[in-house]
Write a structure and sequence with these properties.
single chain; 525 residues; alpha+beta; Rossmann fold; Hect, E3 ligase catalytic domain fold; five-stranded mixed β-sheet; four-stranded antiparallel β-sheet; 17 helices; 18 strands; flat
Length: 525
Amino acid sequence: MTCLSAKENDTVDYSSRRKRSLHRKRLMDVDKGGNPDQLPPGTPVVIYSRVSSEDQIHGYSLESQVNACKSFAAQRKWEIVGYYSDPGFSGKDDQRPAFSRMIADAREGYFKAILFHKLDRFSRNIENTLRYFRDLNACEVLIASVTEDFDFTTAQGRLVFRMMALFAQWYLENLSAEVVKSKMAMARHGIQNGPVPFGYIKNQKQIVIVEEEARLVQNAYELYATGKYTDQMIADFLNQSGSLTHKGNRWTKDTVTDFLQNEFYYGMVAYRDQLWPGRHPAIISRELFEGVKAIRAGHARRPRSHMGINKVVHANLLRGIVCCSHCRQPLRIQSTRHYGYYQETSRYRGRDCLQSNGRVRMDILDQQVFDLLKSVQVPGEWQVEIQGMLQDMDVVRQVKIRKLEIDEELRRVARAYADGGYSEASYERRRSRLISEKNLLTIPDDMEALELDVSLEMLGDYLEEANDDERKQILHLLFESIYYDFDRQCVVGFKPQTEFANVFHSAVSSTGWVESEGMFTVLVD
């Protein structure tokens, strides 16, 4: 596709393989917060510090951030119970190692406030900032900047918080916009953004052809242009030559798919979905590239042999959780007109596996998992306790319902206090009474465990009667992974989801499973 740029009257090509949709997320609501100055002496708090690579260059040190937070805590006589630091991580990403640990610890109630030097140390993404402010406040954990005046007990304070978060987001978006403009300008001048593909290397500021690799590129395109080769056949051809991708991996069907659609090979550079003539030498002609493109389009229109009008739709109950017992990689789904299969595909991913290309029918493997669950039995010594538990089940349900009612009442009281409906003293009395009542509403751990075990014992029979959607949801709820051995043609192990580990552990004595570090081995005759 080609169009004319309105600003510069230059012709711009568009890449068919580089389509990108930009989605902007909406500002999230913020719950009421609290003022850290109201926390009494001795309150447990933690310090969070962060620097990105850019901050490190400009001397924005972790030590100075921590010292400022220590001074802030000392003035208020708070107790510092932990330090969390993320050197070299961007504030845009909330998947920072120390940050993630801190949020998890906050939810466990290990501290009451998080101190940081400035808001942009905590986050530079307004959605993340507001979301974590809301979630932490729900856990009764406050956040405080030691260099910015935070007071979230008033409407004005919440407005100030939003303004600061918006400014941090504006900075990040402005920085991103500048990066986009810079990369676009490089592409317009024919300069490649990022690494170069197979067949080229960067030699200082020049991109030069690697002759041996270039011959393979030319041959691969010419073979595919005959119409007699598939992506996998081209991958096999490249692997047989002994060459690896620039990442050091074997060629696969997926890497070849991108390789055969890369406009860089006929002399173009791309940014996002736009193309410009590059400064680098071409390896193939545009005519050859367009010929390959036409062959691919023809393949896409051609119906596959198994895509018949009477094709059976398979449930894929174990998609994403069933794995090969040897290489531990997830099995892929393969469908035919009559059956669905779980297949080992290491060969197509450029990896080695002793059971490469093994496959098993879905219905057979699914039934093995159902039978595995049917083998679960509650230990005999628990039977008497179970009878009593069943009698007390109504009481347990009432406790759970009352806990939910108290949570909702706490939210209503907090909103009323924020709107001026309660004085501070009245609000604290009401809140303390509700929390005390909730703390008294406890369910013994053995009661919850027994309830889960009874459910699991009946689950095998229930799965036989459930529909496919219900089966899939249940299996994914129970299992993190299931391991199938193609040589022995059976399930040989599994790893349950964390919340169900104890339940499966209780069934070890009745099933003969062997448990080790969260994994369960199924003994096979």
